[in-house]
From TrEMBL:
Gene Ontology MF term list: glycosyltransferase activity
Protein name: Putative phosphoribosyltransferase
Keyword entries, A-Z: Glycosyltransferase, Transferase
The organism's place on the tree of life at top rank: Archaea
NAD recorded as keyword: no
Domain Phosphoribosyltransferase: 10-190
Name of a matching Pfam family: Pribosyltran
Organism: Natrinema hispanicum
């Protein structure tokens, strides 16, 4: 149990530092990942930027992820779920385009005119406040890999064992402070887990400017 995102960020920063990674940049997944990303970036002494992805919701059930798309169009499709729900390709492809556009707009909003950090050949640490299904996390990791990063580490405070294990296929290393088997939602492992408003989340990026 973490007190709040600050507590989780401090514990995560300690865990990442123990890996002795010569990181070049930390990328936080908005919005909840930014408070933690700021702490990890400060601990490592590197810049903080964002990596944004949004889920593709199932027809008639937008909360059920059948995939996710990042701001550059990098996509992860849950083929098992797509087949199970008999979702047609036209729906998925249309959603991919719309979701990629929304993710790009969100990334630009957060950067507020700042240039995106070039990831070519960089050692990157991707941070979020936790993993549930891992859909958007997977799309974010693919975004970083497709941008030419030399090394990608995922760092999160909590996630279910099966999701964390599956994400090892998308990153060179995964650091997770807690992997409880009795997992239902990320928020259950925080005593305080309120929404992070966009305005507050953006301030974490400004602090390093």
């Amino acid at each position: 149990m973490f007190d709040d995102r600050t507590d989780a960020g401090e514990q995560l920063a300690t865990a990442v530092a123990k890996q002795d990674v010569d990181a070049d940049v930390v990328l936080a997944i908005p919005r909840g990942g930014l408070p933690l990303g700021r702490i990890v970036a400060d601990e490592l002494g590197v810049p903080l930027d964002v990596v944004v992805a949004k889920k593709i919701g199932a027809p008639g059930n937008p909360e059920l992820a059948i995939g996710a798309v990042s701001s550059d169009g990098s996509v992860w499709r849950n083929e098992v779920m797509i087949d199970h729900l008999s979702v047609n390709d036209e729906y998925v492809e249309t959603q991919q385009e719309d979701v990629a556009t929304a993710a790009q707009e969100k990334a630009e909003q957060y950067r507020a005119g700042r240039d995106e950090i070039d990831l070519e050949g960089k050692r990157v640490v991707v941070v979020d406040d936790g993993v549930a299904t891992g859909a958007t996390t997977r799309a974010c990791l693919r975004r970083v890999t497709n941008a030419g990063a030399a090394y990608v580490m995922l760092a999160v405070p909590v996630g279910p064992p099966e999701a964390i294990e599956s994400l090892r296929d998308e990153a060179d290393a995964v650091v997770c402070v807690e992997t409880p088997s009795w997992f239902s939602a990320v928020g259950q492992f925080y005593r305080t887990f309120g929404q992070v408003p966009d305005s507050e989340a953006m301030q974490y990026l400004d602090e390093g400017s």
